[in-house]
Each structure stands twice: as structure tokens, then as C-alpha cells.
């Protein structure tokens, strides 16, 4: 079709040319002005209808939500707020939309309401902006790694390993539920799940990613990840997308540098390529803020916050240093931490992480060298015998955005740790093979893509930054 997208049309340098646009009606005023949108931008194109010479039946069919094809002349607009109008010479209704039944009215709907009609929320300015930014960020992730010679490695979705995701993995089964196989004791034999093996959906591609890195040097995965998080937080989904690079010959410092560079690169990419959408989202937040009492308002605008993140080094400190800070702190005069920091060895709660980022340092933080008891078996043990070469990156308003580590490449240390924790070595024989044949120092991390999109769009709930959110009791659309 000769259709031109509205974004490209608005960048036109010519007028008095014939154009065809296709899109959905946002509003239709006075039987004369159609605001048409095709999702390429939040800016609508105004169509001027010669209503005196237009069939009345056709005019009635131009309703909010209807799909139209319009041909006409591009002219400079006389109205305020827009550069061009199209003087329609031909209007075709491609799909009607019954105004009595269409759930989206030309007014501001609450995010809660839009979550219930998530199949239609793409048609609002807020979600148009969010999903264009999301698209751009995912392109930037690939661009960053491809420019650095990383190999995009597809790790499996169905897997026998649960990457020690104890209890968080969704089981995959092709069993006939009416005729379940039984063990000799008469219990359901889940070991028969997947053509005779016990399988689940991946909770992380890291272990497989390490196999790739031990030959291709630098790889990354970027795929859907599943966790049976039976909780209702604004930061967790049951299905989310994770970016997991794994780099051979990297230590923890190299790993932190890579992670910081990635985050800054993709945020910068969004600032440069999604100016209009980020300005829209910034303004949206400012309006929301005006409804709040003074002391709850944001200190920085969304765009300033993103720029600040680019302009400053992330604060790096050890877990041990963080505990010292937290022991001496109370969040504010009235309130203590809900979970008081007892001392060294306890895992940090999100209130502690947010305190460090938002109140103490007021910038992104990289925490390193956690106690080995609260981290995974594959993280490299430090010489002190107590900590591992782990890193978590914490972001303002988000909390943990990245978790990573240098990996334990020494077979004896790795096996000893697996024994201590009770991880069956025979099930991970393939993983241990990388330590048997040509083991080398390596490191990697996992970046939760939706947490990144949350940060960049300034949204408050992770369910609003993924097109089709999966969370308890929600998987229809
Ligand atoms: P959290 O402490 O927030 O539950 P985690 O430590 O369990 O996260 P990791 O296993 O370290 O998460 O996974 C790496 C990254 O994946 C996290 O830093 C986070 O950005 C993201 N992530 C983890 N779980 C979820 C989830 N359920 N929904 C969305 N993103 C997630
Ligand atoms: Mg978790
Ligand atoms: Mg965590
Ligand atoms: Mg983590």
C-alpha cells in the first residue's frame, strides 16, 4: 500500500501532496475533525472532513476506535498544536467500532482499569509510549553486544535443570492427567513428565550460557524466563525477559564495568531515539506528582533522572560496608526499618536496598562480595572463606536490577560447595565438565529487562511495562 506512517508524515518537508494514511480514530469533533493515530507516534494527524459533501451514513461510522483509510491533501494546519492537516478526498471505513460498546473512551483511564483490558490498552498514549520505549531498549541491548563481538546464544526454555531455582520453577509435562504414571509406592511419578524425564521452564539461562562462553568467549542470552513467584509485588512477574551475558577471562571488576556500560548505553539510546515518548512520560509523571503531597513528590523529573544516571559513576561498595551503613541508619525520624539489620550475614530486604540507593548515596549502587550463604553455589569463593565474588546492581525506585558474579572455575572448590549445600553433582555433570576441560576465569550477570523498562519509563508497576503480563491468576491475554 502507498500508506505513509503518521510519524514519517509529520516529518514531511512538503505540502500540497496527496497522501494515504491508515489508523484508528481517537476522536471525531463537530463532524469535521478526525484525530487519527496509527501507533507510530503519540501525535495524531488531524483529518479535515468536508462534511457537507460526505454521505451521512459514512459520517456516522466514524467513531472512536474505528479503523480508517484516508486519502487526501497534506496542508499546513491553521489550528494550534499541529503542523499539518489532511484535507480528506476519500474516506474508507475498514473496521467499525460500536461507540456504545468500545471500552476506551476519549478520556484519561486509570492504569488499574487499563490492566483489566490489557488487550486494548495498546491504543492509549501511555502504553503506546511504553511499548515503543521497550522496543527501542531491546534493540539497544542487541546493538550493544553485537558491537562488542558477543554471540547471541539461544538457551533452552524447557530444561531438566532448575538452576537451583528451588521451588520457583514451573513444571513442564505432556502427561495424560487422567492416566498419570505411578511409582511402585503408588505416588505420581513426576520423573516421567517429559517423555520420561522431569522437566521445567527455565528460571535462568546462565548455566547453559557458561557452556557457550567456554568456547565462544563472549555470549549473551535474551529470552523469556519463568518463575512461579506466587506473590503480588510491583517488581515480580511469572514470565519476564532476562538478558544474561557470560564472558570468558573476566573477573568481578570487568563484570561490573560491563554491566554499568550496558545500562548506560541502553538508557542513552532511549534518550536519543525516544525523545518524544520520554517527554510524554515525564510530563505524565509530573501531572501525577501534582496530586501528591509535597514531601512525596519526586526530587527529579524522569528525564533528569535518566541523564543523572548517565553522568555519574555507580557507587561501588561491599556488602560488609553496606551492613555497617545500615546498622547506623534509620530511614527517617519516625520510622525504623521493618526488618532491622541484625548484623553481618543477613540478606538485605528491598527497604534496605532502597535506603542505600535513594537516601544514602542517591545514585545507582553496586554491592559486591556477599556472604556465600545467601548466594548461589556457582559464585566464586573469595580468599576470606566467607564471601563470594557476587555483585547486585541497585537502582533508584527499582531495587535490584542486575544480579551477577564471577563464576567458580576451580573444580574442587565448586564440588565442595555443591556438597555443602546438597546440590546433586551427577545431575550437573555437563556443567562440571567445563571445569574439567579448559576451565578459565569467567563472569556474567542477569539483567531483568522489565525492571530496566520500569526505570526508563518511570512507571510504578512491572505489569504495565510488558505487553502481556503473567502473574498469579492472570494468563488469558
Ligand atoms: P529479586 O531479589 O528481586 O527476587 P532475584 O535475586 O531473585 O530478584 P536473580 O535470580 O538474581 O533475581 O535474577 C536476575 C535479575 O532478573 C534480577 O536482578 C531482576 O532484575 C530480574 N528478576 C528476577 N526475578 C524476576 C521476576 N520475577 N520478575 C521480573 N524480573 C525478575
Ligand atoms: Mg527472587
Ligand atoms: Mg535478589
Ligand atoms: Mg539476584
Give the helices and strands, then pairings.
Blueprint lengths: L5 H5 L7 E12 L3 E5 L7 E4 L7 H6 L5 E10 L7 E12 L15 H6 L8 H23 L3 E2 L5 E2 L11 E2 L26 E3 L4 H11 L1 E9 L12 E10 L3 H22 L1 H16 L11 H10 L3 E4 H9 L22 H11 L4 E7 L15 E9 L3 E8 L4 H11 L7 H8 L5 E7 H9 L20
This protein binds adenosine-5'-triphosphate (ATP) and magnesium ion (3 copies).
One magnesium ion (MG) binds next to strand 15.
Spatial shape: globular
Main structural class: alpha+beta
Distance between the termini: 30 Å
Largest sheet: 8 strands, mixed
Oligomer state equals single chain
Question: What's the alpha carbon Rg, rounded to whole Å?
Answer: 27 Å
Helical fraction? 25-40%
Q: Beta-sheet strand percentage?
A: 15-25%
- Reading the helices and strands in chain order gives HEEEHEEHHEEEEHEEHHHEHHEEEHHEH
Number of distinct helices? 13
How many β-strands, per DSSP?
16
The pLDDT mean sits at 95
Strand order of the largest sheet: 6-10-11-16-15-14-13-12
Molecules bound to protein: adenosine-5'-triphosphate, magnesium ion
Low-confidence stretches: none
Structural overview:
This protein is an alpha+beta fold. The protein has helices spanning 6-10, 56-61, 111-116, 125-147, 206-216, 252-273, 275-290, 302-311, 319-327, 350-360, 411-421, 429-436, 449-457; strands spanning 18-29, 33-37, 45-48, 67-76, 84-95, 151-152, 158-159, 171-172, 199-201, 218-226, 239-248, 315-318, 365-371, 387-395, 399-406, 442-448. The chain has an 8-stranded mixed beta sheet with strand order 6-10-11-16-15-14-13-12. It has a 5-stranded mixed β-barrel with strand order 1-2-3-5-4. Strands 7-9-8 form a 3-stranded antiparallel beta sheet, with no helix packed on it. It is globular. The two termini are 30 Å apart. 36% of the residues are buried. One magnesium ion (MG) binds at residues 392, 400, 403.
Amino acid at each position: 500500500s502507498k500508506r505513509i506512517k503518521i510519524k514519517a508524515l509529520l516529518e514531511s518537508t512538503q505540502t500540497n501532496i496527496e497522501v494515504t494514511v491508515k489508523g484508528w480514530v481517537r476522536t471525531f469533533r463537530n463532524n469535521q475533525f478526525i484525530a487519527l493515530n496509527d501507533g507510530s507516534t503519540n501525535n495524531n494527524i488531524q483529518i479535515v472532513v468536508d462534511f457537507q459533501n460526505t454521505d451521512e451514513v459514512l459520517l456516522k461510522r466514524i467513531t472512536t476506535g474505528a479503523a480508517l483509510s484516508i486519502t487526501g491533501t497534506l496542508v499546513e494546519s491553521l489550528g494550534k498544536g499541529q503542523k499539518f492537516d489532511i484535507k480528506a478526498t476519500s474516506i474508507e471505513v475498514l473496521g467499525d467500532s460500536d461507540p456504545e460498546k468500545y471500552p476506551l473512551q476519549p478520556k484519561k483511564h486509570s492504569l488499574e482499569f487499563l490492566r483489566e483490558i490489557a488487550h486494548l490498552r495498546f491504543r492509549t498514549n501511555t502504553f503506546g509510549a511504553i511499548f515503543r520505549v521497550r522496543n527501542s531498549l531491546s534493540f539497544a541491548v542487541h546493538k550493544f553486544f553485537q558491537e562488542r563481538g558477543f554471540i547471541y546464544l539461544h538457551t533452552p526454555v524447557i530444561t531438566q535443570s532448575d538452576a537451583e531455582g528451588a521451588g520457583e520453577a514451573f513444571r513442564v509435562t505432556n502427561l495424560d492427567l487422567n492416566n498419570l504414571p505411578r511409582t511402585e509406592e503408588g505416588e505420581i511419578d513426576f520423573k516421567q513428565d517429559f517423555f520420561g524425564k522431569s522437566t521445567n521452564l527455565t528460571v535462568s539461562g546462565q548455566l547453559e550460557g557458561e557452556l557457550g562462553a567456554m568456547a565462544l568467549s563472549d555470549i549473551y542470552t535474551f529470552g523469556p524466563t519463568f518463575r512461579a513467584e506466587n506473590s503480588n509485588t510491583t517488581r515480580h512477574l511469572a514470565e519476564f525477559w532476562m538478558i544474561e551475558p557470560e564472558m570468558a577471562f573476566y573477573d568481578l571488576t570487568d563484570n561490573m564495568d560491563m554491566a554499568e556500560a550496558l545500562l548506560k548505553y541502553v538508557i542513552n539510546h532511549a534518550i536519543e531515539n525516544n525523545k518524544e515518548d520520554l517527554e510524554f512520560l515525564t510530563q505524565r509523571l509530573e501531572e501525577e506528582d501534582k496530586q501528591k503531597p509535597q514531601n512525596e513528590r519526586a526530587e527529579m523529573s524522569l528525564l533528569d533522572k535518566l541523564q543523572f544516571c548517565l553522568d555519574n559513576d555507580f557507587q561501588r561498595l561491599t556488602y560488609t560496608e553496606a551492613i555497617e551503613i545500615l546498622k547506623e541508619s534509620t530511614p527517617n525520624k519516625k520510622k525504623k526499618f521493618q526488618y532491622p539489620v541484625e548484623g553481618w550475614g543477613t540478606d538485605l530486604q528491598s527497604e534496605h536496598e532502597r535506603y542505600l540507593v535513594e537516601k544514602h548515596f542517591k545514585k545507582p549502587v553496586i554491592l559486591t562480595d556477599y556472604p556465600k550463604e545467601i548466594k548461589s553455589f556457582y559464585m566464586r569463593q573469595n580468599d576470606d572463606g566467607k564471601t563470594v565474588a557476587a555483585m547486585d546492581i541497585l537502582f533508584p525506585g527499582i531495587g535490584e536490577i542486575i544480579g551477577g558474579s564471577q563464576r567458580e572455575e576451580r573444580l574442587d572448590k565448586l564440588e565442595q560447595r555443591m556438597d555443602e549445600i546438597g546440590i546433586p553433582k551427577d545431575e550437573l555433570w555437563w556443567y562440571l565438565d567445563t571445569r574439567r576441560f579448559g576451565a578459565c576465569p569467567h563472569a556474567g550477570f542477569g539483567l531483568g529487562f522489565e525492571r530496566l523498562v520500569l526505570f526508563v519509563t518511570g512507571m510504578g508497576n512491572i505489569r504495565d511495562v510488558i505487553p502481556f503480563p503473567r502473574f498469579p491468576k492472570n494468563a488469558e491475554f
